[in-house]
Amino acid sequence: MQEKSFATCFDKNCEEFAELLMTLVSDNPSICNINLKKEIFKKDRAITSNEYVLAIGPDGSKVNRASFPDSYNKYGIHIGYRGTKAWISCENFDWTVESLREFRIELISLLEESGMRTDNIDDRIAENVKKVKSEKSMDSITSYSTIDGIIMGSLTTVAIAGEFVKNPIGSFVSYVRQWIDNILNASQRREQQYKLAVVLFYHKYITDFLELKNSANNNAEDEKMNF
C-alpha cells in the first residue's frame, strides 16, 4: 500500500498557521506517522493521486471555495474539505452582541471538548482582560500556540470587543473604538482568527478528511477476521 501523504500549502503570509497545524499533528499518534510536509502555495502545483492537500489562506483556498461548500462558515472563518482537498480561509466579520454571545458559547464548548477545565472560565477571562488593559497590548495573550491558549485568546478578544458593542452612544463610542483598535489591530485579529481556524480544523475535521476513522475501523475488522 502506498504511503499516505498530507501536504499543507500556505499563502505567503500564512506560514505560521501551517507550522501551528504541524505542531498539533505531531502529538497525535494517528496522524504523525503520515508523510507530512508544508510548502508555500503555487498555482501550478501538481497534486499526486494519493496526496491530501490543505490550503491555508484566501489565494490557495479560492478555487476550492468556489467549487465546493464550506463545512464551517461562521465568524469570518471558512473551513471545508472535499475528497483529498481541504481549505482554511478567513475574512472580516461584523460583530453584534448576539454573535459575540454565540461565539463565546462555542469557544467554551470547544474548550470542554478538548478536555480543558472551564469551571473557572470567567475568572480566567477577567484576569486576561485586566492584563491586556494594563499592558495596552494583546501580545502576552496571543503568543501561545497551544489549543487552550488560542481559545483563551479568542475568549479574551470577545470580552474586550463586547465592551464596544455594548456601549453605544456619543463620543464614548469613538474613544472605545480607537482604544480597541490600538490593542486589537487588524493583523492581530486576523492572526487570532487563523489560529482558531486551525484548531477547529484539527479538532473537528482532520480525522474525517484524512479518512483515519475508516482506516481504524478497517483495521479493527481485519483483526477480528484474523483472530
UniProtKB/TrEMBL annotation:
Protein name as it appears in the record: Uncharacterized protein
Source organism superkingdom: Bacteria
